């Protein structure tokens, strides 16, 4: 018995329409940070972050397969996912730019137990072991096993419809 569903032979949309539809899903905003072999830091903005499992504690995020930082994040053993708080739009923009400037210049952070940057003022952070990676389409899905985390409850930074927003305080 064949249990596979038939695939559409023609899509009824183009990539611009697909991106616009995706933009209607509000997401949190994160900055993923890690350390390079020379001791410097690398960070990037990502809105593709989800929980996967409570036991073991697993989270995921994705990165474009052709991203300049792909070799760094796929080769490093650990990274920190910093969940941005309301008012941290500048951090999101700073770490989303391709630039020769060091995005950590002037940014307050502390170091995790493995020496990775944890950005100050974030609403939560997760220090992860780089457990597995799954190439899918034009991205790679990273699954991290959370080894440490912290939370500072406050309104979070959201991205919806191409704009930043915030959660309401509870």
Automatic annotation (TrEMBL):
Its EC number is 1.-.-.-. Signal peptide: none annotated. Gene3D superfamilies: Electron Transport, Fmn-binding Protein, Chain A. Keywords: Oxidoreductase. The keyword Oxidoreductase applies. Residues 22-166 form the Flavin reductase like domain. SUPFAM superfamilies: FMN-binding split barrel. GO terms for molecular function: oxidoreductase activity. InterPro entries: Flavin_Rdtase-like_dom (IPR002563), NADH-dep_flavin_reductase (IPR050268), Split_barrel_FMN-bd (IPR012349). Belongs to the non-flavoprotein flavin reductase family. This is Flavin reductase family protein. It comes from Massilia niabensis.
């Amino acid at each position: 018995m064949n249990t596979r569903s038939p695939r559409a032979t023609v899509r009824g949309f183009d990539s611009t329409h697909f991106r616009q539809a995706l933009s209607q899903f509000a997401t949190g905003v994160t900055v993923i940070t890690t350390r390079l072999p020379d001791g410097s830091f690398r960070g990037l903005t990502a809105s593709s972050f989800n929980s996967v499992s409570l036991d073991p504690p697993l989270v995921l995020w994705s990165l474009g397969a052709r991203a300049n930082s792909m070799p760094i994040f796929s080769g490093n053993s650990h990274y920190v996912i910093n969940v941005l708080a309301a008012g941290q739009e500048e951090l999101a923009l700073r770490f989303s730019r391709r630039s020769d400037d060091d995005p950590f210049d002037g940014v307050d952070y502390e170091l995790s137990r493995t020496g990775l940057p944890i950005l100050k003022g974030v609403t939560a952070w997760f220090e992860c072991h780089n457990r597995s990676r799954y190439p899918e389409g034009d991205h790679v899905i990273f699954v991290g096993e959370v080894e440490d985390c912290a939370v500072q409850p406050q309104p979070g930074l959201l991205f919806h419809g191409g704009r930043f927003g915030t959660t309401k305080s509870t």
